[in-house]
Amino acid sequence: MQDSLVIAGKELNSRLFVGTGKFADHNKMKEALEESQSEVVTVAVRRVDLGGDDQYILNDIPDYMTLMPNTSGARTAEEAIRIARLSKAAGMGNWIKIEVISDSKYLLPDNEETIKATEALVEEGFVVLPYMSPDLMAGKRLEEAGAATVMPLGSPIGSNRGIQMKEIIQIMIDEINVPIVVDAGIGRPSEAAEAMEMGADAVLVNTAIATAKDPVAMAQAFDLAVKAGRSGFLAGLGATKAKASASSPLTGFLHS
Amino acid sequence: MQDSLVIAGKELNSRLFVGTGKFADHNKMKEALEESQSEVVTVAVRRVDLGGDDQYILNDIPDYMTLMPNTSGARTAEEAIRIARLSKAAGMGNWIKIEVISDSKYLLPDNEETIKATEALVEEGFVVLPYMSPDLMAGKRLEEAGAATVMPLGSPIGSNRGIQMKEIIQIMIDEINVPIVVDAGIGRPSEAAEAMEMGADAVLVNTAIATAKDPVAMAQAFDLAVKAGRSGFLAGLGATKAKASASSPLTGFLHS
Amino acid sequence: MQDSLVIAGKELNSRLFVGTGKFADHNKMKEALEESQSEVVTVAVRRVDLGGDDQYILNDIPDYMTLMPNTSGARTAEEAIRIARLSKAAGMGNWIKIEVISDSKYLLPDNEETIKATEALVEEGFVVLPYMSPDLMAGKRLEEAGAATVMPLGSPIGSNRGIQMKEIIQIMIDEINVPIVVDAGIGRPSEAAEAMEMGADAVLVNTAIATAKDPVAMAQAFDLAVKAGRSGFLAGLGATKAKASASSPLTGFLHS
Amino acid sequence: MQDSLVIAGKELNSRLFVGTGKFADHNKMKEALEESQSEVVTVAVRRVDLGGDDQYILNDIPDYMTLMPNTSGARTAEEAIRIARLSKAAGMGNWIKIEVISDSKYLLPDNEETIKATEALVEEGFVVLPYMSPDLMAGKRLEEAGAATVMPLGSPIGSNRGIQMKEIIQIMIDEINVPIVVDAGIGRPSEAAEAMEMGADAVLVNTAIATAKDPVAMAQAFDLAVKAGRSGFLAGLGATKAKASASSPLTGFLHS
């Protein structure tokens, strides 16, 4: 179809981005990634770098997927920049999802440090996709800094609470010109569909797929939901009404 | 797949029921019905009976669909019973969706009259699918009366307000043994997905498809959404959490 | 003030109704009832009738309060009618709150049986205040049967979930002519205020006060909240807007 | 009572802060300010400075209130700093509410510039009360910079949409040590009560009072609501439950 999403010149047919964390095993992960139809997958640079079992995680990511390494573990812009460089040096490509988090309880990203890291890494030629706390002005700064997308969280990561920050995310979708990817908090297919109906360009889902009883079936559910929400958005959603309006004619019949 | 829904011995592969009201023209309607993959369609007996253009509406309903004529226009049990008999006499089969509505502003169904009509028509051999205001005890009475499904409204018909009555509909899903079909109020694909994630057996969508800018694309969107929600339900949705929980490892890396 | 609520000729200055269940002890209860400023209190006829400690509960209810005995424990109209007669015979007055509940899990009232009991007891001269599952047509039947008020639940009793049934309760407030009292589910002062802002005539609160760490302070909080919500309703609430609108002038100053 | 709020050594008995914008006339404003029982009032420095009618606005503010001049109209930290100095020079005291807004559509504050202005003005000896877009890390920086309170918006100013940003504001209340004042968006008394129940230290309300049909009655309604919500918070709110829990005993009676 011609409704593709283009990020840094890459044409994507799926608007579902996925992650590699929390899967029970690599086989299930691989199968779920494939079933999701997703073309973009995020992986923590730290896991690849660690050695041990996890270093082979890249082997279980389908070849056709674009790798979006993330700077998980970074607490400052400087640390995020260092991780991004390690990632490129390790052959993981030039896409980088910036995560700068110093709050260890709610894991909320630090927008100010995220903006700094974005500015520096765009300068170095990275395709930068920053994860952020929803905020219009910070989003505009990320856009100005050259971010390829802006990725606000829907609710705290791993909380499965859906798009709690709807109000501000809707404003960001309306006012920011680079693609908006709703990242974190989406726990159910219906919530992914809702993000797409709001006009988001894509969603990133990890926990909800990885920790489902059946991750492969859940990956498929999210694939369908994202397509459903996007189709609904394009088909022109109706306005809500305060009163009822009959689908079938109500008068006349037996009473006429 | 083996996750079919069986109503009165009929095996259905799609859990999306659709309607025929409010379409701009019959061609668009036919195309949308087909694209929806739905196998059950409701049509007001009154429209068929009217003569004029509308009487040919049946010609534009795909052959493979099960007809669920409705008693739209009935204000009492007695009127609904009369319409049901007309429907059968006119060769529209023995399924009947009961709608008894005397409230002309919000078009909210009358549960007491609906129960009476259900009792009488089950007695006469109809497959009765009553539309109702969400209420646990009324739902149980409909079940006892022999209803094939119970169809509570999500919000007032045509309002596109989604599942406002979530609290009570969830209880009905948990406590009533015949299939629950959420009918009326669903305005967006995400809301149809949500109903399925709650464990509803099916949804009925009419206004949202018929009045979309592109009804055919919207029909497809709802088809995907219902499948997404159902798959998510079967795959085992995760619980929501008050706090965040990282998808990627957060500690150790640069700090170790 | 002249904004009093009149029920069966009785003029009430407080729109907060309270209950006597779940208090840790009678002294705390008495103090909370007084602090609530409430003038109407419900008590289960069954408790009075039981003998033992509970039979003296009436001694701890302030004299100025109107007693609204309830038929808690009734599972049918017939049982409710029997309890109402016992109540009157025991000198508890001619007000009766009808509760007919056969669902032991969610404790949702049975509207059909409630309507029957209301019809019978109005006939016998009772002032009937029926507790019910929110439903427009059932509410209209209760009004026609002569109910002094209609008391829909906000959410299942004791759940502290607030006004989950907002959609239908708003419609009942708009369409039914006797006073609407939101009963059950209200867990926080803000939710009582919200009911009043919607135009409800009164609220009944029991669990939220009785089980608070400090029931007396909580009683006072609900008193204030009900007054706040009612004042807000009368003062003319503003409409919500999709966009911002500055309170202070934004242009000109430094830029002019 | 001893539940006072202390800001910069000033003890406040009311947790309702009010504004002076949008009132139809100065007399109504004065009466509403008095009736609100509020002890803190914000006024745009720009209005005082303008000359013309508005310059006399200070005359209509009750003497006992603490003036919290605001930098409305500032689009950068630098402009906000300039306005703050003008305010002090004009004898309006050393409290300053920082508002830095360059987004003219949703009027969302610029956290980065707000932090800069806060740092500079704390340095100059001001009591700084910054208005901000809800964000945990920006809130922490404001605290570190020496802000006397942190004032996140509930929803876009003047929108009357309530606390749309509940999720993040709750986290800010839990994690930030200076008082949190929910500012902007609160349109109904129940929403003010809700903010207090969440544990907010105060709320600022302007539009909802000033534009009510009866601003004086609405001021009183908000006063009561804030007290109700605060009392409820202190009295220990109960947890919500998934199932019902009877207030009155349900078994035994007629069935025993």
Automatic annotation (TrEMBL), chains A, B, C, D:
Tell me which residues bind 1-deoxy-D-xylulose 5-phosphate: 158, 184-185, 206-207
EC number(s) stated in the UniProt entry for this protein:
2.8.1.10
The protein depicted here goes by the name: Thiazole synthase
Q: In which pathway does it act?
A: Cofactor biosynthesis; thiamine diphosphate biosynthesis
HAMAP family given for it? ThiG
**Any idea which UniProt keywords this protein has?**
Cytoplasm, Schiff base, Thiamine biosynthesis, Transferase
**Pfam families recorded for this chain?**
ThiG
Q: Which SUPFAM superfamilies match?
A: ThiG-like (SSF110399)
Q: Where does the protein end up?
A: Cytoplasm
Catalysed reaction per UniProt?
[ThiS sulfur-carrier protein]-C-terminal-Gly-aminoethanethioate + 2-iminoacetate + 1-deoxy-D-xylulose 5-phosphate = [ThiS sulfur-carrier protein]-C-terminal Gly-Gly + 2-[(2R,5Z)-2-carboxy-4-methylthiazol-5(2H)-ylidene]ethyl phosphate + 2 H2O + H(+)
Source domain of life:
Bacteria
Q: How does it assemble?
A: Homotetramer. Forms heterodimers with either ThiH or ThiS.
> Could you tell me which PANTHER family the record lists for this protein?
THIAZOLE SYNTHASE (PTHR34266)
Q: What's the top EC group for this one? A: transferase
**Hey, which family's this protein in?**
Belongs to the ThiG family.
Q: Which gene encodes it?
A: thiG
Q: Which residues form the active site?
A: 97 (schiff-base intermediate with dxp)
What's this chain's function? Catalyzes the rearrangement of 1-deoxy-D-xylulose 5-phosphate (DXP) to produce the thiazole phosphate moiety of thiamine. Sulfur is provided by the thiocarboxylate moiety of the carrier protein ThiS. In vitro, sulfur can be provided by H(2)S.
Tell me which residues make up the Thiazole synthase ThiG domain: 7-249
Q: Which residues cross the membrane?
A: none
Question: Native species of this protein?
Answer: Alkalibacillus silvisoli
